[in-house]
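Provenance

Sequences were taken from public entries as deposited. Structures were produced by running a predictor on each sequence independently, with no templates supplied. The record for DMSO reductase iron-sulfur subunit protein DmsB from Brevibacillus laterosporus LMG 15441 is shown for reference.
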Amino acid sequence: MAKHTLYIEMENCIGCRSCLAACTQCGGHDMRNRNYVLETDPFVSRQTIPLMCLHCVNPACARSCPAQAIQIADNGAVLSALVEKCIGCQNCTIACPYGIPKFDEEQNLMYKCDLCYDRSKDGIPPMCASVCPTNTLQWLTEEELAQKDSQVKLANGKWTASMLGALEGETNVKISLPGILQGKQKLF
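Predicted structure for DMSO reductase iron-sulfur subunit protein DmsB:
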C-alpha cells in the first residue's frame, strides 16, 4: 500500500468548517472535533486556516509525557493519549509548539487529531480531507506530493519544506502557505 500524507493548501480555505463537522464523525472521536479553523487576521483579511496536529516526526507532546501515553503509529500519526496510561499531567498540552492538544477536564485526558487513525492506517483519507470542498486538505501519495511540491515551487515558492523557520521541526503533515502568511517568522 502506498504511503499517504496529509497536505494542507491553506490558501484554499474558505472557513466553511466542513472539516470540523466531519472530524466529530470519525470513529473514536466521541463527537468531539480535534481540529480548528482560525481567522489569521480578521481586521486585514478574510483568510482562514485549518489548524490540526501536524504529526511531528519527533513530537514534543510524546517526549514530554512521563506515562508514555502518546504513541506514534507506523504511518506517522501521533495518536491521542491512551486512556489507560494518561495521568492527566497536561505536559503534552504545554509542550506542543502549536498548542494543538486539548485537555478534557471531565475525562482527565488529552485529545487531538490522530489523522482518523482507524481510516488512515488503511490508506483511507481522514474525514476532514474526505469532505473538504476546496481541496484545502488533501490525502496524497508520495508521488502526488512530489508533483505538488514541484508545481508549488515553480508557481509561488510557498512550500514550507523550504521555509522550515515557520515551523518548529519536521512534520508528517505538509503545508503550503497562503500569500498573507508569507514571511511570517512563526505560524502558531
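Residues 42 and 48 are 9 Å apart (CA to CA).
The two ends are 33 Å apart (CA to CA).
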